UniProtKB/TrEMBL annotation:
One of its GO terms (cellular component) is plasma membrane. This is Amino acid/polyamine/organocation transporter, APC superfamily. Pfam families: AA_permease_2. Its main location: membrane. Gene3D superfamilies: Amino acid/polyamine transporter I. It is found in: Cell membrane. The chain crosses the membrane at residues 21-38, 50-72, 93-118, 138-157, 169-190, 210-228, 249-271, 297-324, 345-364, 370-391, 403-422, 428-447. The keyword Cell membrane applies. Keywords: Cell membrane, Membrane, Transmembrane, Transmembrane helix. It is a multi-pass membrane protein.
């Protein structure tokens, strides 16, 4: 996507990804900001049964994964939700809004990572090495988060290769941090520390219910499970994707969910939920402090810092390239498709997505941004599950994975439920941010319609 090329016949992408590498990609794409930054926020909604929302979020994501597996096997192209929406409904505006929602989810996810970078992990390192203590909500910390977003833009501007090469190393690092938390929990259980009774506690706010408390926490925890859907964009670079995708995606999701549940159990065993909620995005730092007081806290702070950098970098890369793809397909103003003559990167799209991220970092908190990310993707996943059922009428000429019918049906119902106001217990602020972002997409769509009229959409080119 970084280069503007003439419309000539292109060779196929090299199929270099085997089952093990694909499995690693799925796990690495899921792990990240969600668990490192939102554990405390989820604890504040559910109480000591912190493991439960992560488990339920996995179940919802797992159902949707079946739809993605059927669709990627049937249409092994690097386009994902936009392609499936376009083929199923053939409504250009809906296809555009799905693609735009996916792009916005990348920006909100990266923005939550930027806040975790400044307000939690870098702030802890400043205390450890320079004895400098800053309030999490101070203008200095917010300024650091904005500088972080700008630094991502510079890396993004330099080119794709610099971004992708760093991803493999950072994935290993963020996995090691979660293994440390789980090891601390295992040690605590072995020596008789911790309070097992907390694992079944569910805090019910006044005027609410157990169901609402659980669904509200699950709606937020779902942010930690997103990322698996990105693997479909690697379909054209996999060896025999129809055969290896189902096992790699489902096993990868199960591994990530197991890690999350164990982290949740460890956190609740060692620390009461009100203390985790008070710690907010620093909840895992608090777990390390209490569970392993001799462990150098700066090591875990550095791991957390690198974990959120990894998440933010990949999400901003995806968002800018998807925006560029929409401009290149002439479904938003062509201006956004401008490529820098020397770096050959979509610099206008990078500037635009960076500007949106700066606004979000300056006006919203981590929990709100994480909730908005999950809301946008739950809407997209609802549409994908329905698309899977609709596209059953199209028969593929090759063998492919077929999901049991109950999976996309339950996937659509559960995703829609967690996205709905009132029923999910989701705060209205999530809908406000999502609404403004989608309104911006509507404005771009209308401007383009006035300038160019109706334009045919090729979803496959949006992802390249």
């Amino acid at each position: 996507m970084a280069e503007a090329t003439p419309q000539t016949e292109q060779p196929e992408l090299k199929r270099a990804i085997g089952p093990k590498l694909l499995l690693f990609f799925v796990v690495g794409d899921i792990l990240g900001t969600g668990i490192y930054a939102l554990t405390g926020n989820v604890a504040g909604k559910i109480g000591g049964a912190l493991w439960l929302p992560f488990l339920l979020a996995f179940v919802v994501a797992f159902l949707t994964a079946f739809s993605y597996l059927e669709l990627v096997g049937k249409y092994p192209r690097a386009a994902g939700a936009a392609l499936y929406t376009n083929r199923a409904f053939k409504i250009h505006f809906l296809t555009f809004m799905v693609a735009f929602a996916v792009m916005c989810s990348g920006i909100t996810s990266a923005s939550s990572a930027a806040l975790a970078f400044g307000r939690t992990y870098l702030r802890q390192l400043l205390v450890e090495f320079f004895d400098v203590s800053l309030r999490p909500e101070s203008l200095v910390i917010t300024g650091i988060a904005i500088v972080f977003i700008a630094a991502l833009a510079v890396i993004n501007f330099r080119g794709v290769s610099e971004s992708v090469k760093a991803n493999v190393v950072l994935t290993f690092i963020e996995l090691s941090g979660l293994v440390i938390i789980i090891a601390i929990g295992a040690y605590a259980v072995a020596v008789g520390d911790g309070e097992p009774a907390r694992l079944t506690e569910i805090n019910v706010p006044s005027g609410s219910s157990v169901l609402l408390a659980v669904t509200s926490a699950t709606a937020l925890a779902f942010f930690a499970m997103v990322g698996f859907e990105d693997s479909v964009n690697m379909a054209e670079e996999c060896r025999d994707p129809v055969r290896i995708f189902p096992r790699a995606m489902l096993v990868g999701m199960a591994i990530a969910a197991l890690i999350y549940v164990l982290v949740g159990i460890t956190s609740s065993l060692l620390i009461p939920s009100d203390e985790l909620a008070k710690a907010g995005s620093g909840a895992l730092l608090r777990v390390v402090t209490v569970g392993a007081p001799g462990f150098p806290l700066w090591v875990f702070a550095l791991i957390g810092l690198l974990a959120v950098i990894n998440s933010a970098l990949i999400n901003m890369l995806m968002a800018s390239r998807l925006l560029y793809g929409m401009a290149n397909e002439k479904i938003i103003p062509k201006f956004f498709g401008t490529v820098h003559p020397f770096r050959r990167t979509p610099w206008i799209s990078i500037v635009f997505t960076t500007g949106v991220a700066v606004i979000l970092v300056s006006t919203a908190d981590i929990g709100r941004l994480g909730g908005t990310t999950s809301l946008l993707l739950l809407i997209v996943f609802t549409i994908v599950n329905v698309a899977c059922l609709v596209l059953r009428r199209e028969k593929a000429e090759h063998r492919h994975f077929r999901a049991p019918t109950w999976a996309p049906v339950l996937g659509a119902i559960t995703c829609a439920y967690l996205a709905m106001p009132v029923l999910s217990g989701r705060p209205w602020g999530d809908y406000v941010i999502a609404g403004w972002l989608l309104l911006a997409g509507l404005v771009l769509w209308l401007i383009n319609r006035v300038l160019h009229g109706r334009v045919e959409i090729n979803p496959e080119k949006l992802a390249k």
